[in-house]
Amino acid sequence: MKVLICAGNGGIGQGLIKAILERHPDAEISATYRKQKPADLSPAIHWFQTDLTDQKSIEQLASNVSQIDWLINCAGFLHQLNGDTFHGPEKSIRQFEPDFFLSNIQHNTLPTLLLARYFSYALKQSPRGIFAAVSAKVGSIEDNRLGGWYSYRASKAALNMALKTLSIEWQRSHKNLCVSALHPGTTDTGLSEPFQKNVPEGKLFTPEQTGHYLLDVLEQLTPEKTGSFFSWNGETLPW
Ligand SMILES: NC(=O)c1ccc[n+]([C@@H]2O[C@H](COP(=O)([O-])OP(=O)(O)OC[C@H]3O[C@@H](n4cnc5c(N)ncnc54)[C@H](OP(=O)(O)O)[C@@H]3O)[C@@H](O)[C@H]2O)c1
């Protein structure tokens, strides 16, 4: 099995790589990082420095990794520091700002579309392929009960729409492939760190836990399940 984990240096990306190393020791793992390659994972991993928002960078990645069975995109964005100013998800529409909205789309939606474009051929060759992206339950339109977080929700809803649309196109051309959106559950990473205080006890997963939960889901995916949104526990989520 040949696996490409995009943003394999992030919290959930590393958790997933560790789970694959443990449960599929024969898997050939390639992974991407943008800023810093993790120092303490297996030396057998092939690392590629990639800016997943950059078309040329993804084109280059695809020319380096020409055979894959699974491509899992674990990149994402929720908040940023501008100088000393924390810029996080909007509590109210009064906090909405175009630059922050566009950053969400750029990091949460665009990379998966570019990856689909440039890895279409490689994935078509796989006898049992998976193309998945780590989305978020808050991107579900039907499940939206609390409101807020306009930019993040909209960027993940757009990601979900992109994946659903791709699953329809590839159902015809990539018959051995499953396209899926994944919700990882709240996981203790830099991305969720500022928002963890109200997480109920036992509901904040370590990245290693999430890695195993997502791998449980991935192992169950078949082409018949293409075009679905799965939670970490295998539950199907509404779009
Ligand atoms: N943690 C949670 O509770 C939670 C809940 C629901 C959904 N999610 C989703 O899970 C995914 C993973 O998040 P995480 O919790 O693992 O966060 P994280 O530890 O902050 O990891 C985010 C990853 O995205 C990468 N990234 C961002 N922009 C990039 C770009 N332009 N090019 C390449 N890589 C880029 C980062 O790379 P660098 O560090 O190199 O910049 C990092 O590897 C995200 O899509 C997030 O929305 C997380």
Describe the structure.
There is one protein chain. By secondary structure, the chain is of the alpha/beta class. The protein has one domain (2-231): Rossmann fold (3-Layer(aba) Sandwich), CATH 3.40.50.720. 36% of the residues lie in helices and 18% in strands. It is built from six helices and nine strands. The chain has a seven-stranded parallel sheet, sandwiched between helices. Strands 5-6 form a two-stranded antiparallel sheet. The longest helix has 24 residues, at 150-173. The protein is globular. The model has no long low-confidence stretch (mean pLDDT 97). The protein binds NADP nicotinamide-adenine-dinucleotide phosphate. NADP nicotinamide-adenine-dinucleotide phosphate binds at residues 7, 9-13, 33-35, 50-53, 74-78, 107, 134, 136, 184, 186-187, 189-192.
